[in-house]
Amino acid sequence: MTARLAAICCSLMLLSASPAAAQSFAGLQIGDNAEKAKALGLPSDTGRYQEYDLTKWRLPNGNDLSISADANGQIEFIETDWGATAAGAAAGMFGFTYGQTSRSAIRKKLGSNGLSFRNRAPVMNTASGLLMMNSYEVGTVIVTFLTLIAPADIDKAKTGELGDHARLVAISLASPGYAAHNWGMATNDPAYKKLPAP
User: What is the pTM of this model?
Assistant: First the structure.
């Protein structure tokens, strides 16, 4: 096997790694050095947010993966966004499926509405629809599930349970320090419990 073929095989193994194994996406975990992400190939975009270096990739399954690394190169935030393809529909965490799993199902599975943060709105109006965020402590990582009510479903959502119409479109991982610094103090609903690492 040539060195190039071995590198490609290694990258594919990383891309197929189960995120539930240790709260990771494409083989990347919070606390990893950003150099590890070079296995994903050339990024589709780069930039800066406050003191963080941002890097984004389009994965072979059509999903987008982005990371934020601090000045020491340590990954503090990871997000994967569904590319609306069947190949990328498996979220790889808690058995959830992009485009299908509802916000109501997430809250039922995880036992509560999760955490909210003082400086981050839990609901946002976007060009794609109404975006909702539910966060949970899973081991030592803050996991956020982003669900979306498409514009075509907003009227239907007004007559029923809002969460039944919001479908999973993205998942993010953040270090507690990143969450505190960027989103502020966390509060939780009465039923909230920290979830053990899988």
Answer: 0.87
State the Cα angle at 118 between 113 and 124, rounded to 5°: 70
Residue type for position 173: L
For 97-135, the DSSP string reads BTTT-BHHHHHHHHTS--EEETTB-SEEEETTEEEEEEE
Cα 114 to the chain's mean position, in Å? Answer: 15
Q: Which of 14, 13, 35, 36 is nearest to 25 (CA)?
A: 14
- Asked whether 83 and 73 are in contact (CB, 8 A), the reply is no
**Contacts with 160 (C-beta within 8 Å, 6 or more apart), sequence order:** none
189 touches 110 (CB < 8 A): no
Neighbours of 139 (CB within 10 A): 14
Alpha-carbon distance of 59 to 95, in angstroms, equals 20
Digit-coded pLDDT (tens) for 21-36: 457 899 999 999 999 9
Which residues are paired to 47 by β-bridges? 54
